[in-house]
Design brief:
With 614 residues, the protein is an alpha/beta fold. 33% of the residues lie in helices and 19% in strands. The structure holds iron/sulfur cluster (SF4) (2 copies).
């Protein structure tokens, strides 16, 4: 079977000469397999006539078309199509009382569509967008599966659903007033005080929703969903903007819905550690973002996550990624650095910002070293990045440490060589009025045209398809990738600073991009400071850690850079959470609170992971 999708944002029939139609071999035989009529803005492909040769895809100068050949078996798995030549979703994850079902997969893969269908916000049309089926037909479609009873109840309005949306920053546009007013109104379960305390809402209780930060809005949105008394709870990306401690508290509250009240819960989550902790079962969404998405069969979470990392679903005969994502027991590197490799050294520093003060312990950074910054929100991680980048920008690189810069050193022999800084901020403000390509060319210069740049930056970040897009038109994930790419395009930078590079990225991109950042830092023999909340990304990225402690919003203190294991132990002891390594994939896994392993590791003082023999 064939799927043809046209992107109307890219299609410009007047500018392209409609070469998609001109060169189609089927059209040349006189059959209108792809056509555009006077009353149409864009061409339409008749999938039943199309041979899937892909000539139109290659010929289109604006990359507006996608045509894919899929196995015939999927013909009966159509769930939803928004209209002609648009994205197709195949299959749905089952929702099972007493179990939390997670959905993982790429942005644009159909996760939010699946959640909206399960929430009853979209009635599935089973692919027939012109003559949508009635509930009877929809229920028949799911005959024999858990979803048959589910949609039966949805169709009869017997199932009440609450959904925590993905884009919580839109919340102030739809509701106003103080947090207390908003949450008191929805407290259908009479648990307001418990939720207020556990989600740490006291400090913002009297604040207007309009002035809340991303993390605060997320906690309010989660509270608003949990306070309602419903049969089904759906959470779309509940951990965005939260620090690790907040993520785990949120996860515990969501688990309680199932463990104590046997509710039906579905979660879309990109933080794989949190997904592992919250869910009992997972479905993997794979396909081609923006074109089609297929929901895998359901797996128990641990096995499913390992399959996801391996990039294959043997039971469905599918390989959705060429390379597996491999974790390693990161070496305890800090003590192994040589003093000749020091690239940046900073003294004890401090900063006062209104009522908040930050004290910074001195530290050193080595060539090829990535230092992760971990700690709760409100302890000054962003302040430290700014402080260090300002401090570093005034410094000269010690002469003996410029040896790797070869030619540049001899050219600049008589001059001081300043430390070159590149910084990716936390908030992605768009003050550039151009395309992705223009921005990257401006920053990277000649390097943009090299094959190394293509293989190091353009390809791993999947930027080929958005090079001609204006920054203002990008999604959150695309913007994040562009900002990271821009930072890494400063070819002369010796020090990179990144604030939450994994925000807005799906789990796949997080792992691919963090691996890529680490490789670039090592290859270029530069160094990086990276603020990150996703434990898997921290584990993947960091050679060393700076750990923050203190009172959020009042006082923050940083440790000197310490090795990853010591730093994670220190941080996790502070938040009273233990991690172990998965025996197969070596990925970090959160231990259930008060489980035997949790108690044992706490007694041993091993909060991060105990030794695993490979
Ligand atoms: S799909 Fe491409 S070639 Fe066809 S009309 Fe649109 S822009 Fe032109
Ligand atoms: S894929 Fe081939 S047959 Fe199908 S519309 Fe394009 S050119 Fe025509």
């Amino acid at each position: 079977m064939r799927i043809a999708v046209l992107n109307p944002d890219r299609c410009k029939p007047k500018d392209s000469g409609k070469v998609c139609i001109k060169y189609c071999p089927v059209v040349r035989t006189g059959v209108d397999c792809i056509y555009i009529k006077d009353d149409m803005k864009y061409p339409h492909i008749v999938e039943s006539l199309c041979t899937g040769c892909g000539i139109c895809v290659k010929k289109c100068p604006f990359h507006a078309l996608s045509v894919v050949n899929l196995p015939e078996e999927l013909e009966t798995d159509y769930i939803h199509r928004y209209g002609k030549d648009t994205f197709v979703l195949f299959r749905l994850p089952p929702l099972i009382p007493g179990k939390i079902v997670g959905i993982i997969g790429p942005n644009g893969g159909g996760k939010s569509t699946a959640l909206k269908i399960l929430a009853g916000e979209i009635k599935p049309n089973l692919g027939d967008y012109e003559d949508s089926p009635d509930w009877e037909e929809i229920i028949r479609h799911f005959r024999g599966s858990e979803l048959q009873a589910y949609f039966q109840q949805v169709s009869e309005d017997q199932l009440s659903v609450v959904a925590k949306p993905q884009y919580i920053t839109n919340l102030p546009k739809v509701v106003g007033g103080e947090v207390s007013e908003l949450l008191e109104k929805v407290d259908e379960r009479g648990i307001l005080n418990e939720i207020k305390e556990r989600l740490n809402l006291e400090k913002i209780w009297e604040r207007d929703v309009k002035v809340l930060s991303g993390g605060e809005l997320q906690r309010v949105s989660i509270a608003a969903a949990i306070l309602r008394d419903r049969d089904v709870y759906l959470f779309d990306e509940p951990s965005s903007f939260l620090d690790v401690r907040e993520r785990l508290e949120m996860a515990k509250l969501i688990r309680k819905l199932v463990e104590q009240e046997n509710k039906i819960v579905g979660v879309v989550e990109h933080d794989l550690t949190i997904c592992d902790y919250i869910t009992d079962l997972i479905c993997i969404l794979y396909g081609l973002p923006g074109v089609y998405g297929i929901v895998s069969h359901v797996h128990n979470t641990n096995a499913g996550l390992n399959l996801y990392l391996r990039g294959e679903l043997p039971s469905e005969n599918i390989r959705f990624r060429n390379e597996p994502i491999v974790f390693d027991l990161t070496p305890e590197a800090t003590e192994g650095w040589k003093s000749s490799e020091i690239i940046f050294e900073y003294p004890e520093l401090s900063k006062d910002l209104g009522d908040f003060s930050l004290s910074v312990s001195p530290g050193k950074l080595h060539k090829g070293e990535v230092i992760g910054l971990v700690g709760r929100n409100g302890l000054g991680k962003t302040t430290l990045l700014n402080l260090l980048s300002e401090y570093a920008a005034q410094l000269d690189i010690p002469k003996e440490r410029t040896a790797d810069q070869g030619e540049k050193e001899s050219e600049d022999k008589e001059q001081e060589i300043k430390m070159q800084i590149a910084l990716k901020p936390q908030h992605l403000k768009i003050d550039y009025d151009g395309t992705v390509e223009l921005l990257l060319k401006e920053v990277a210069g000649k390097a943009f045209h090299t094959s190394l740049y293509r293989s190091e930056i353009i390809r791993p970040y999947g930027l080929e398809n958005i090079l001609d897009h204006y920054l203002k038109d990008l999604s959150g994930g695309e913007l994040q990738k562009t900002f990271i790419a821009e930072t890494l395009s400063h070819m002369d930078a010796n020090l990179i600073f990144m604030d939450e590079p994994s925000a807005f990225l799906d789990s796949e991109s997080r792992l691919v991009i963090t691996k890529n950042i680490k490789r670039i830092v090592k290859n270029r023999k530069i160094s990086a400071f990276i603020v990150e909340h996703d434990i898997l990304a921290v584990d993947f990225l960091s050679d060393s850690l700076i750990v923050f402690s203190g009172i959020p919003g009042v006082r923050g203190t940083t440790s000197a850079p310490v090795n990853l294991r010591y730093g994670m132990n220190k941080f996790l002891k502070d938040v009273q959470v233990t991690f172990r390594r998965d025996a197969k994939s070596l990925r970090p896994r959160v231990n259930k609170m008060d489980s035997e392993l949790d108690r044992k590791q706490k007694a041993m003082g091993e909060y991060y992971y105990t030794s695993i023999k490979k």
